[in-house]
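Hi team,

Filling in the usual template for the complex we talked about on Friday. All components are listed, including any nucleic acid strands or ligand strings, so the model treats them as one assembly.

SUBMITTER: L.P.
PURPOSE: interface mapping
COMPONENTS: four
RESIDUES: 704
SEQUENCES:
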Amino acid sequence: MVGKDNRVTINDVAKMAGVSKGTVDRVLHDRGEVSPKSREKVLKVIEELGYKPNFYASILASQKKHRIVCVIPEYVSGDFWSLTARGVEESAETSSRFGVTVEVVTYDQYDVESFRHVCNRVLADLPSGVVVAPMFRVETLNFVKKLDASGVPYVYIDSKLEDDSYFAYFGMPMFQSGYLCADIMADGRSLEKILVVRIERDKMGYSDPTVARRTGFMEYMAAHCPDTQIVNVFIDPKSPEDIRRKLDEAFAGASGNIGVVMFNSRIHIVAEYIRERRFQGVRVVGFDALEKNLDAIRSGHVHVLIAQHSDRQAAAAVNALVDNLIHGEPVHKKDNYTQMDILNRFNCDYYM
Amino acid sequence: MVGKDNRVTINDVAKMAGVSKGTVDRVLHDRGEVSPKSREKVLKVIEELGYKPNFYASILASQKKHRIVCVIPEYVSGDFWSLTARGVEESAETSSRFGVTVEVVTYDQYDVESFRHVCNRVLADLPSGVVVAPMFRVETLNFVKKLDASGVPYVYIDSKLEDDSYFAYFGMPMFQSGYLCADIMADGRSLEKILVVRIERDKMGYSDPTVARRTGFMEYMAAHCPDTQIVNVFIDPKSPEDIRRKLDEAFAGASGNIGVVMFNSRIHIVAEYIRERRFQGVRVVGFDALEKNLDAIRSGHVHVLIAQHSDRQAAAAVNALVDNLIHGEPVHKKDNYTQMDILNRFNCDYYM
DNA sequence: TTGAAAGCGCTAACAC
DNA sequence: GTGTTAGCGCTTTCAA
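RESULT (copied from the run log):
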């Protein structure tokens, strides 16, 4: 059960190089104050011996503390952002072992002012790193510019903006996901029309993070199904009557094959409507593996979901920062596109 | 950048309980030799203070070493088992930091004797834990029985057997994957016949880990497409001529829609044949995201792959053992079914 | 510019 | 039974 240790330690290096641990440590961390010859000797010995610092001894000794803050929209249990929050919690657990605390701060995604407020709070007490889910383009750019100026690394999750000082991005390839969605919706089916159900508020010009997705969808349709009619239906997700009325209206004229799609995570709203109206043969495709959406797959009211592990995304974002803060590791890849998972009733039960 | 530490240490506990660190450590690790009253007091203080041992300090101090061995089939770069091996390597990297070495030993999956040999070697020098991919039913059961008798935990990956002393299992739900595969192959398409391409050697009664998958496939077909003809085609994967001849034969009679499927990871063989023959409109579905298979998706010769992250599976298997060995953590879930990923040309490029 | 030494939180051997 | 103590590999003063 017990093997033997063949790891080389900082002491071995020091001895071999004829210097003290202190000096080795200094060259290891570029703390200057080392004569060129010592430095060189140490470096050579490190190379020769294949010395790898013991990570854990290191954090044990240096009782450095870091704080990472994650700025995401407010959430309630079961909705999209709660998945993200869960991922953050998970990595917070691990990170705390490295002396890194992770803090979640939320804002109202329909209230720019609340976002500004949160940003200011973060800027007032600068953390070591920031994870941000950008919903307001201009304000976010403004925010990250200040972070950048203060040398605080920030990583985007979910969607990213067009600046390029970000440390990393973790999210779905949005355009592609729309393209994929269209294929799943329409391929091999000659649909008469497709209802694109959208949130009323999105009309008001708040930056809509699903816009690229919609673009991908439309491009596919234009290229492959030019005869299918695409109809936008704007609903107020909080008003069942509104939903009923708008959808009734949209369905009214149609006789042939119809598809319904939503580009955010709320396709369960449509599922509920279809269930109520007992419609048959409508093809329903949506995004994200919320519990409600999965239920809709199981009951047959949604056919396919395109999902992503947004919890893992969030965890990966935090971890990337932690690795960088603790170990000075550069990020492996700047843009990390999550895989797009296609879920139907035969595989959805095995999706975490 | 620097926060403050609010972690409670073993010293705090000792002080509060009016005992020494030694005693606290003893109750922490059930090393006996502690009076009931001390134990109780310590336990109470731990509870009150919410003390959590510092994992890394612990490994640093106790220089325990562990060895885990992974028994998997021989592999060459790019094939199925090389993915598994890669996952093992990855977790080996991490585990080495915990004083755990991970060793891969391989056997010829077509030679029982080689498997027996490897098992004996493992048994001769017992490791702390074993990960095994079972290809030979009887011999594996025999092997794990001995491990069990010696108190060595073992975890199955890829497929599992019907004993229940295993510590954990990580793999795809095989039956379900066949069912899913059939749906993807046949749903909404009235196929005249489906060629199930199999490896010649599988006829010889070696235990075939894909049998459950095939069963799932057949059950779906029987239930949903009773009119589709299912034809088994046995090929020698090493002989291009054999493949050509057998498939030519199988395709010869057909006029309508045809599907081709393989239940192991080698659908690229079929893709290559189809490419060569320039067949159009044949529906090809297979398993596993080998580079060759992904290429076949990109070139349009395979339509869908059902994939799993077998590298992550392997890593998870090793990690479960490490957690148990180092931290005494019980396994969270005994049976860990991997998600089944549906890959087509629109999402395959984002699959790691 | 460098070495010595204390100490991070924990383990384990040893003494009482 | 229990306290004491010497490390584990590394960081970080503090002197020299």
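MY TAKE: Residues 19-23, 26, 32-35, 38, 57, 59-63 of chain B lie near DNA strand D (CB under 10 Å from a C1'). The longest helix of chain B spans residues 310-327.

Thanks, L.
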